[in-house]
Amino acid sequence: MAVLRLKFTKNERDKLAQVLWILNWISVLTGILLFSLGLFLKVEINKRGELMAERDIQYVPNMLIAVGLIACAINFLGGKICYDCVDTNKFLRWKLIMLPYIICTFFFTFCVLVGALMCYSMRGELEESLNLGLTEAIRFYKDTDTPGRCFLKRTVDMLQMEFHCCGNNGYKDWFQIQWISNRYLDMSQKEVVDRLRSNVEGKYLMSGVPFSCCNLNSPRPCIQQHVTNNSAHFNYEHQTEALNLWMRGCREALLEYYTHIMQSIGLTVLLTWLFEVMDACLSVLTGVRYLQTSLENVLRQGDLNSESDGWLLENSFMETARTNLNIIKCLGKGNQIDTANNGDPNINVPSTSKAHYGPDNVPLKEIPEAS
Amino acid sequence: MVVMKMKFPFEKRVKLAQGLWLLSWCATVAGAFTFSLGCILKTELRRRAEVMDNSDVHVVPNTLMIVGLASLGINYFASKVCQDALDAGRFPRWKKMLKPYFAVSCFFTVLMLLAVIMSYAMKGSLESSLKVGLRNGIRFYKDTDTPGRCFQKQNIDRLQMEFQCCGNTDFKDWFEFQWISNRYLDFSSKEVKDRIKSNVDGRYLVDGVPFSCCNPSSPRPCIQSQLTNDSAHYNYEYQTEELNIYLRGCREALVNYYMGLMNTIGAGVLSVFLLQASVLVSLRFLQTAMEAVEGNENTEIETEGYLLEKSVKETVMEYINPVMKFLMLKNQVEEGTPGNPEIPTDVNVKPGLF
């Protein structure tokens, strides 16, 4: 008793093959979309690579790129199969890999879902990476003469100007590190020497920030030096002054930026996944399965232009499941064929080895195995 | 004397009509492209409208937009004409419209060429407009409390950071204007009072620049104040220091940017002009070739096509004469009247009056 048996004329078979071919090509396009989204995310992360500490965040864009490429490959192959299905001669070539192909598509659809979910899970790792990376960057801001770090000053300045942020958590981060190199400090001046001596580690700390922290929207010229000293500037109260410098920390700004990108990408990938599910499971699996079974039946009947039956499963669900389980069990037992426990009453498995019927040579009664 | 006579056998006519149809659709797309180029240029000019004194340079994008729209119509009409051209029954209905059509389309094609020339010629006007606009921008930088000028500071800061420039001609322009508002000056301080007294107009001038002039590529933290005073900063010589602040003036930066944009657009529009001109020339040949076919039983005869029936000068006069007559700039002298053309032959003079 087959599951969902349908009759297929030759025209209907051809039309089914064509529809599946078109669906597969649309899936190839979505595969390209996934690939490009992964590439975009990788480029964005590498752009600010200097500000991120070593953390395992590259796995998300790499996964998306891999999934996108596999999607293209699988769906291209599927398109080729469906194209060839119209011609029964070519169909014979693909007969054997059709079932594995269906299983691969199923598995791959699951990978797309995993990729979408990973986009949302990346946030914690990213925050940690940015925190460490920005702290390091601010610390090495002054080292413009050290090879490997000479462009860090420019990177941090451009970051603060572009993202409208200052420091790691806020502008006070700049008070805790020396961001003016000793090359530009006049060691003969008393003020400089006093400041250096008053610090435990001999660092020149000041309550000042670089120019890139200055807020464009401020009505007054930027106050960078003695930021916390109200008496140093006329008509100035640093507690209430909100427009002088950027108040937001760069970690928060970058995190928001990347979260926004990843949420958009995650949403797109989820939508792609939904489309793939509808496309792969309902259409391709069903359609390809029908195509496969109807073409097999055509070949069995011998007449290429006749009607044939197509079905999802040859026998009912339970029977098919039992058969497959037995096949797996047989594989596990190796070459031994247990004729005494020939459990399945439906499949006629002829025993090829010598039957051990006992001294009377009378075949034993079949005992249905409790599985 | 016919200009550019060419023989057209039937196959050649057919090929001409087909090629013209394709060409006119390409030219329609090119017309839309010209319109969009005009829109882009106008948007870019309007973005920096606060630092431009006058909008004379806007004539270039305006012309491009008008020409783009006109060429859409012209080329659509051309495609319709050449579709009917090979059908001797349907072609005559276009005959009456073709003469004014050619006049109008030649006008717009010439206008397109003019737009290209103007885009190169407008440099001087743009530069003087920017000079005045930037000067005002710097002058009103401090007036963040005056309505109508409160965003001047923001605009100038953004401009300097985006175009990596400082001041009008260079950074020294900031030394000539008071860019720190009196609201933030402590008038009880001796230093401030001295500085204001030393200036003729009572302005607080400093040899310093705003933070937006700072160059992020500099290896040392930005030096904004006391720029010309070498002793105020350790290990600093302002004559040789190139990386501290942007040395380029904003006028030069903006002119370069806009001229680059207009040159690119000019090159594009020039190719559109060539396409358009070829459409018109082909249509003219098709029209004249088809006119000879008209009236003949056999539509597959070989005909001659030409560009202009008379010489260039005569054709131009033919078109301009009606315009001149309309404006009454010419004496109404009929051709072929004997005698002195200066004495008007007035047939309405009643005999017997004199």
Automatic annotation (TrEMBL), chain A:
Gene3D superfamilies to which the protein is assigned, alphabetical: Tetraspanin (1.10.1450.10)
Main subcellular location: membrane
Membrane-spanning segments: 20-40, 60-78, 98-120
Keyword annotations: Membrane, Transmembrane, Transmembrane helix
Compositionally skewed regions (Polar residues) per UniProt: 341-354
The keyword Transmembrane appears for this protein: yes
Protein location: Membrane
A GO cellular component entry from the record: plasma membrane
Region (Disordered), start-end ranges: 341-371
One annotated GO biological process: visual perception
UniProt record similarity statement: Belongs to the PRPH2/ROM1 family.
Name of the protein in question: Peripherin 2-like a
Species annotation: Cyclopterus lumpus (Lumpsucker)
TrEMBL record, chain B:
Main location: membrane
Any one GO BP annotation for this protein: visual perception
Highest taxon of source: Eukaryota
Membrane topology qualifier: Multi-pass membrane protein
Transcription in keyword set: no
Residue ranges of the TM segments: 59-79, 100-122, 257-281
Keywords: Membrane, Transmembrane, Transmembrane helix
PROSITE patterns: RDS_ROM1
Keyword Amino-acid biosynthesis: no
Signal peptide: none
Pfam families recorded: Tetraspanin (PF00335)
Any GO CC annotation of this UniProt entry: plasma membrane
Alphabetized InterPro entries for the sequence: Peripherin/rom-1, Peripherin/rom-1_CS, Peripherin_LEL, Tetraspanin/Peripherin, Tetraspanin_EC2_sf
Subcellular location: Membrane
Family statement: Belongs to the PRPH2/ROM1 family.
PANTHER family named among the record's database cross-references: PERIPHERIN-2, TETRASPANIN
Protein name per its UniProtKB record: Retinal outer segment membrane protein 1a
Lineage, uppermost ranks: Eukaryota, Metazoa, Chordata, Craniata, Vertebrata
Gene behind this protein: rom1a
